[in-house]
Amino acid sequence: MSLLLITGTSTEVGKTVVTAAVAAAAQAAGRSVAVCKPAQTGIAPGEPGDLAEIERLSGVDTTLELARYPEPLAPDTAARRCGQPLLTLDETTAAIEALPEVDLTLVEGAGGLLVRLGEFTLIDLARELDAAVLVVAAAGLGTLNHSELTARALAEAGVRCAGLVIGAWPAEPDLAAECNRTDLPRVTGVDLVGAIPAGAGGWDRNRFADAAPGWFIPGWPTLD
Q1: Using CA atoms, how far apart are residues 91 and 111, in angstroms rounded to an integer?
Q2: Are the C-beta atoms of residues 103 and 75 closer than 8 Å to each other?
Q3: What's the gap between Cα 187 and its chain centre?
Q4: Which CATH topology does 2-215 take?
Q5: What is the pLDDT of residues 113-126, one digit of tens each?
Q6: CA torsion, points 93, 94, 96, 97, in degrees to nearest 10?
Q7: pTM to 2 decimals?
């Protein structure tokens, strides 16, 4: 089983849509896919969360959510406020490793790289699973700083970065976005492996799944 963890440079940069796009692209290449969202916040019991959106867009049907908290906060804060126990690294690792055998397992984090998913961050989980991390970045001003900080944190932790993806590429990019597309790989030392059109999360499954492979560089995602 190949593992890929997905984080963002901040919140609301498009992690869920990127996760769905990676799943759709992998399935279009004939690979089986599972998706885990360890901690979901801001969603009440019974309401559709990020996994439901990933299922709707990509058609992936092997998913796992470990904890859900009603307030839209960092998972550890949300857990404390509602009196639920924090997720542990051991239980989260065990749950991911117990997923059905597939070609590619995707694990979507919450917010940015150092947000606590429970008693741990996505960096801790990546180390424990010996997995690479894909970074979802914004297109506009501020993204160079956020992306370089994230790439540096991964490098300092000894975690491989699988690439950068722009989570919402505007239909009419401004000068900053156009320059950032060139500058992101330069300042981070990480390849830009894809860009998702802004608004793609509102598409139906057939349109989304058909288009997804073209949003990434040829041959990506690779399984290693």
Answers
A1: 21
A2: no
A3: 21
A4: Rossmann fold (3.40.50)
A5: 999 999 999 999 99
A6: 110
A7: 0.96
